[in-house]
Each structure stands twice: as structure tokens, then as C-alpha cells.
Design goal:
InterPro entries: AAA+_ATPase (IPR003593), AAA_22 (IPR049945), Cdc6_C (IPR015163), Cdc6_lid (IPR055237), ORC1/CDC6 (IPR050311), Orc1/Cdc6_arc (IPR014277), P-loop_NTPase (IPR027417), WH-like_DNA-bd_sf (IPR036388). With 369 residues, this protein is α/β, with parallel strands linked by helices. It is built from 16 helices and 8 strands. The structure holds adenosine-5'-diphosphate and magnesium ion. Adenosine-5'-diphosphate binds next to α2 and α11.
């Protein structure tokens, strides 16, 4: 048997399952404070009380969903009259889709897709909760997607005030906001009844990413399949792009690329090729989460790459009539989502003109827009 060539029936993966998108890692480092905060907020349900509502925020790929699911799994064992539900608002992005999902979980019946209103499904869901004496712990994951249709406030408001209209109803809400947070504000009808425990998930430091990726490598691959230098190459991608999901996806794809070459170990080239072939997927996923004004501004930047902020604002204002403050917010948002770089050019009136540049190729962005 050759030492360097992988035989057709051999694999580099010790346990490929840990690289799947919905895998919940056993070892979840650097998030102890956040896990504790979620756990203590939910703990009252064990004693029959209402949980404390939570507002979780942070950029994509910082462990928000995983943290909630870990605590769900942990607490679920102690109670049997509590329904733990997570609704993914990126998939269920309207109030009707959200309530349909809750209704189905609470009643066990699939609701009709049309001919019923949000209100009537909401009524029936609450009645069922009261009748069965069950409580609901609901996570609205990536609730920012409900802001695009302006449905977030109504959903939150209905849930938070349900106990007033349906005596005996007990609901705890965990709202998970991806990204900037400040940009999405609930209206005062919501904030007057939503006094949550606020839990932040900051971006991981380089060394933390290294630790997480390293741990995943040890679980997924046989020893020595991924040399430290190749691991760091992947960590660099994650650090640049800001989303751990991309790193875990790269591990899987790079491993498969190496297998295809019948190699016993993964190289930098395997990683680069994996990134090239999945790049569009990641860019599109990130662009999908922008709202329509953010997309319009991004399109303007695609049409005028390397443009001064002042000139860009002029075009934006002509096209949308929005003012400078709003424009500036959108620029920050595109910067936070890593679509653009902002450079001080040393030119312009005060030598401080900002130059707006795309981080990825205009043609890739156009394919996703
Ligand atoms: N501290 C961590 N340790 C191990 N894996 C992590 C950690 N944080 C995030 N991950 C992994 O990164 C990916 C993205 O995490 P996720 O919880 O989906 O992030 P978010 O909900 O914030 O977008 C998942 O595959 C998750 O397993
Ligand atoms: Mg998530």
C-alpha cells in the first residue's frame, strides 16, 4: 500500500457529520457568558414560571443559533409541558409564515396556506396553549428578516401582549438579531413591553477562530490530514469574511477536493479551489440578507466602483431622495456586511475624501443581485 496515495475505498474524514450545517458541536468555546445568560433567562420555566425574554445580537456566524439550541436541549430534559420552538425568519419571513410555523408546532396540525388570516391562526394557537396548559418558549431567529416586510413589530407585539388577551397564556420570546442591531429598532409599542436580557455575540478574534476550526478539524478528519499551515489559511479566510460557516464549509469542500486527487492530506490549493467554487454561494447568501435600499446602493457602487462618497451620495440622493444620514447608515451597513471597503484617499477638499470600493468582483455581486 502506498503511503501517499489514498485508495479508492479510503477516506480522510473520520466523522464528516460534524461539518454539516446543522451540527451542534459538543465543545462550544468562548461563549460561556452568553450560554450562562441564556440559561438563567430560561431557567424559570423549570419551576413553572415564565422565562425572561432575551434579545440576542451579533454578526452572522458568531454562534447565536447554536447557543440557543444548546440551551434548549439542556433545559428540555427538565420539563415536559413546555414547547421549545425556533422559527427561522429567513425562511419564514412574513408574519403569516411565522404564525403558521408556531400553529403547526403547538396544535400538531398543518394550517392552510391561504384563506386564513394571521389573527385567526394566532387566536387558535393561543387557545390551544391555554387548553393544553402548555407554555411556549419561542426563538425568532434572524428576526431582522421580518423587518423587511415590516412585520417584526406586529409579531413581537402580539406575542408579548398575548397574556392580556388570552388569560393563562405563558410565552417567553428570544429575539435573535443578526448583524448591526442598532439598525433595526422595534417601535415603542414593542419596546414598552419588551424589556429583554440583552446578550451580545461579538465577532471572534483570530485566535478564537483558530481554536474553533482546530477543534472541528480534530473531530472531522483523521490525524495529520490538515497541516497547521493549511488550517491557518482557512482561518484567514474566515477572519477576512467574518463568518465561521464559511470556514466549516471550506473544510468539507477542501477535504473532498483532496480525496478527489487521491491525496492523504489537504493543501492550500485544495482550500483555494474550494473557496472559488463556493464563493458565489457565500456572496449571494450575504446579499440576500440586505434590504432593498441596501441592495440599490450596492448596485450603484457596482456601476461606479472606486467612487468618492460625496459623488455616490449625489447619485443615491437623485435616485431615492433619501438624505445623508440615511445614506451614511447604509454605507456602514454595507461595510459591516463586508461588501465594501472605505478608504481615505488624501484627496478632496480637506484631504479626507472617502473612496468606496467593492470587496469582491462586481460581476460576482451582479450575479447575486
Ligand atoms: N464557539 C464555537 N465553537 C464551535 N463552533 C462554533 C462556535 N461558534 C460558532 N460555531 C459554529 O459556527 C457555525 C455558525 O454558528 P451559528 O450558531 O449558526 O451562528 P449564528 O447563528 O450567529 O449565525 C456553526 O456551524 C457553529 O457550529
Ligand atoms: Mg443563526
Amino acid at each position: 500500500m502506498s503511503k501517499d496515495i489514498l485508495l479508492w475505498d479510503e477516506t480522510l474524514f473520520k466523522n464528516a457529520e460534524v461539518l454539516e450545517i446543522d451540527h451542534i458541536p459538543e465543545h462550544f468555546a468562548y461563549r460561556d457568558n452568553q450560554l450562562q445568560a441564556i440559561k438563567y433567562s430560561l431557567k424559570p420555566v423549570i419551576n413553572g414560571m415564565n422565562p425572561i425574554n432575551c434579545l440576542i445580537s451579533g454578526p452572522p456566524g458568531t454562534g447565536k443559533t447554536t447557543a440557543v439550541m444548546k440551551i434548549y436541549n439542556e433545559i428540555q430534559e427538565y420539563v415536559d409541558d413546555v414547547i421549545f420552538l425556533k422559527v427561522n425568519c429567513q425562511i419564514d419571513s412574513t408574519r403569516f409564515a411565522v404564525i403558521s410555523r408556531i400553529y403547526k408546532q403547538v396544535t400538531g396540525v398543518t394550517p392552510p396556506t391561504s384563506g386564513v388570516s394571521f389573527r385567526s391562526l394566532f387566536d387558535k394557537t393561543m387557545d390551544s396553549l391555554v387548553e393544553n396548559d402548555s407554555r411556549l418558549v419561542l426563538t425568532l431567529d434572524d428576526i431582522n428578516y421580518l423587518f423587511y416586510e415590516n412585520h417584526a413589530d406586529e409579531v413581537m407585539y402580539s406575542l408579548l401582549r398575548a397574556h392580556e388577551h388570552y388569560p393563562g397564556v405563558k410565552i417567553g420570546v428570544i429575539a435573535v438579531v443578526s448583524d448591526t442591531g442598532a439598525f433595526y429598532q422595534f417601535d415603542t409599542k414593542v419596546t414598552s413591553v419588551f424589556l429583554p436580557e440583552e446578550i451580545e455575540f461579538p465577532r471572534y478574534e483570530y485566535s478564537e477562530l483558530q481554536g474553533i476550526i482546530d477543534d472541528r478539524i480534530k473531530n472531522a478528519f483523521y490525524p495529520d490530514v490538515i497541516p497547521a499551515e493549511v488550517r491557518d489559511h482557512i482561518v484567514q479566510y474566515v477572519d477576512d469574511l467574518g463568518d465561521l460557516r464559511i470556514g466549516i464549509d471550506l473544510l468539507k469542500r477542501a477535504g473532498l477536493n483532496a480525496e478527489k486527487r487521491a491525496s492523504r492530506f489537504v493543501t492550500r490549493d485544495d482550500v483555494d479551489n474550494a473557496y472559488e467554487s463556493s464563493k458565489l454561494l457565500h456572496i449571494c447568501r450575504s446579499i440576500r440578507s440586505l434590504n432593498s435600499n441596501e441592495k440599490n446602493l450596492l448596485r450603484l457602487i457596482v456601476d461606479n466602483n472606486n467612487i468618492y462618497a460625496g459623488n455616490l451620495y449625489k447619485s443615491f440622493h437623485e435616485a431615492t431622495e433619501h438624505g445623508y444620514t440615511y445614506f451614511y447608515k447604509l454605507i456602514n451597513r454595507l461595510y459591516a456586511a463586508r461588501h465594501i471597503d472605505v478608504e481615505f484617499s488624501g484627496q478632496g477638499k480637506r484631504g479626507r475624501s472617502r473612496l468606496i470600493k467593492l470587496k469582491t468582483s462586481p460581476s460576482d455581486i451582479l450575479k447575486c443581485l
